[in-house]
Specification:
heterodimer, A: mainly alpha, 0% strand, B: 10 helices, 72% helix, elongated
Chain lengths: 260, 267
Amino acid sequence: MARELGAVNWRGLWTLYAKEVRRFLNVSTQTILAPVVTSLLFLAIFTLALGRTIPSLGSVSFAEFLAPGLIMMAILQNSFANTSSSLVISKIQGNIVDLLMPPLSPSELTLGLASGGLSRGLIVGLSVGLGMWVFIPIGLYDPVFVVFHAVNASLMLALLGMVGGIWAEKFDHIAAVTNFVITPMSFLSGTFYSIERLPGNWQLIALLNPFFYLIDGFRYGFIGHADGSLWVGALVVLTVNAGLWTLVHRMISTGYHLKP
Amino acid sequence: MEPNPSLAPRSFGRLNGRGVWTLIYRDLRRYWKYGVESIGGPIVSSLLFLAVFVLALGGQGEAGGGLTFVQFVAPGIVMFALMHSGFFNGAAPLVHDKHEGMIQDVLSAPLNAFEVAAGYGLSATLNALVTGVAVLAAMTPFVALPFGQPLVALLFAVAGAALFGLTGVLIGLWADKWDHYSAAESFLILPLGVLSGAFFPLDSLPALARTLILFNPAFHVIDGVRYGLTGYAAWSPAASLAVLLIADLALAWLVWRLIAIGYKIKP
């Protein structure tokens, strides 16, 4: 007799989510501690290299300006890595069928995988923030913006990771997307400098990068200063996430690069 | 019946040159096979670092020795890419060979421990140099480097490539899985590479750190290459070279001995 699942297969959804979270907790040295160390190293070199030359912004020191950007960068890279590696590994090893066969709808698959990436992004973000807090003062200006942008950033990159992971046939493809798309977009999005320092055209380009709004709004939550409009930022972020969610849902329901 | 001469044991002389070259050549081809990532990746990330420094500073800023900050940091970025590439190209082939069981092909070939060590070590060194030269070439349109003593820079680059290539081989021998490789990369190579004076002038450090940095071999690599490319050195280039040669020889000896006793590669 077929099992009755109701409108949502909660147990299946939870199982998928738990699997995604255990996947990265199992290697937490690599997935949580390593990003903390890397971010602290970035903080050290950029403060040492640029700290003296860059004037502080009002009452905020360069390190305090930089810290939210670096936390956000760790969130972006790790939530992307979580979903993309999970899907590519499953595809290469063939256990992707274990995702496709169970009674999980495309919406449940999207939600389960994306929540795994979201959790990784938030846990890494929190760990990096705590790691930095040991060395520099990190104040909270408006926690609502911090949480809103941390959640949306993790979700955006988790969804992007799913798009990449579903598209990719092998690890090289994911490495290429990371090297040539994700890293450049996160580097050139105002992590390390205020975009007010950029020449005119570059400023315009920065405003077209959705990662810019993630970092800008997130930083506003800490230091109370934003380069762009906060409402435009929130709107862009929500729109991009809705669009990505629809795309991922569509890819999974059509079986693009997933089903034979 | 006369033995078939083609079945007689081959004689190699003192060094199985063809065998060593075959081993080197295999890893050079592996490198080229993934050229987009092995060369394109470091070029993009290095140019991003440069862009961040240029954009954040507007190309301004002094870094001592009459250099602009961007001139100061460019050799550091190049060497960071080179050293990381050396580590990767030293470790990855070994981890891969061990993982896939192909290490047997190397161990059963008529190569002694010295030749195996030379094969893995030299291919990593050469691949790292190719990465370094490619990154430097990609950077020259954006940064005016004087190239005062290119041969000195090359000498230090070779010493640095060997240093990190051999470190990679060492980690590759030790690592049982990719997790171990990643751990060494995150907790050993990145800190050594980043806290080396690649990205900041020495006088931005407190006095104690300025002494401690002398114990980081990456500092000597970067300082020497920077001296060759820009004429500015924070420490004595001759002394740095001596430190690097001693470190290279010690590492090469260690790798050779570990391969000879079959450390983690023979049952």
